[in-house]
Amino acid sequence: MRDAFAISLWTYYEPVGSEIAPADYADAFIRHHAALRQIDLDAPHFTDRVTVALREVNDRERSPDLPDSDREFLSDTLSGLSAAISIDKGGDQLLHGEPHPGNLLSTRKGPLFVDLATCCRGPIEFDLAHSPEEVGKHYAGADHDLIHRCRALNWAMFSAWRWRRDDQMPDRDHWRVEGLNRVRAALDRCGLG
Q1: CA–CA separation, 22 and 12 (whole Å)
Q2: Cα–Cα distances in Å, from 120 out to 1, 98, 108, 124, 187?
Q3: What are phi and psi of 175, to 5 degrees?
Q4: How far does Cα 75 stand from its chain's mean position?
Q5: Global pTM value
Q6: How far apart are CA 75 and CA 132, in angstroms?
Q7: Rounded Cα–Cα distance for residues 69 and 180 (Å)
Q8: CA–CA gap between residue 98 and residue 102 (Å, rounded)
Q9: Regarding the domain with residue range 22-189, which homologous superfamily does it belong to in the CATH classification?
Q10: What is the pLDDT of residues 78-107, one digit of tens each?
Q11: Which residues form the Aminoglycoside phosphotransferase domain (predicted)?
Q12: CA-to-CA distance for 192 and 186, rounded, in angstroms?
């Protein structure tokens, strides 16, 4: 702390290459999840994030432009998938929370995850659902049906954020429509459409 400012020092890793092969991405996940299992940290459950998304969807003042049919669709999807995914909490562990490709650096030391501000607890498949689809095929022991359900849940949360009155994402109008389309496609993929 300096003059009421928190200062953190980061190690700089020079990027190499741009794309990380799915097998290397999965290997980075395996190592990352193993390391996270060694950490005793009180982190929220992923369902807490779903609860926040549901609040946005179910409150017409927070999401005034969301059509009623889409509001019902998102609400049902968020609550239904959250309940179905969280039934077995025995396999829950500390997760990155949003390990999408933008949060994985390609470095000389190999792939490294960054931006751990969204750590949460849940099944590893919740993390895997943020990565390109091919990655999960290289992660030994992953439940592929659960990955698909988590991917649909992630798209539903993404859509909920786009419909917030004060959302400022560039191309928000495009992503409002596209987000809902991706939720439907993901539900179809896991046989829930």
Answers
A1: 24
A2: 26, 9, 28, 11, 23
A3: -70, -20
A4: 18
A5: 0.90
A6: 25
A7: 11
A8: 9
A9: Aminoglycoside phosphotransferase (APH), C-terminal lobe (3.90.1200.10)
A10: 999 999 998 877 789 999 999 999 899 999
A11: 19-130
A12: 8
Give dist(CA 29, CA 168) in Å, integer.
31
119 close to 43: Cβ distance less than 8 angstroms: yes
What does the CA dihedral 25, 31, 37, 42 come to, rounded to 10 degrees? -50
Token pair 């009421």 is found at: 4
Question: Rounded CA gap, 99 and 132, in Å?
Answer: 10
Q: What pLDDT, on a 0 to 100 scale, did the predictor assign at position 15?
A: 83
For residue 119, the tally of other CB atoms under 10 A from its CB is 16
Identify the pLDDT of residue 11: 83
Q: Where are the alpha helices (DSSP H) in 5-45?
A: 22-37
pLDDT under 70: residue ranges of the chain: none
User: In angstroms, what CA-CA distances link 191 with 6, 131, 132, 160, 171?
Assistant: 47, 20, 20, 22, 30
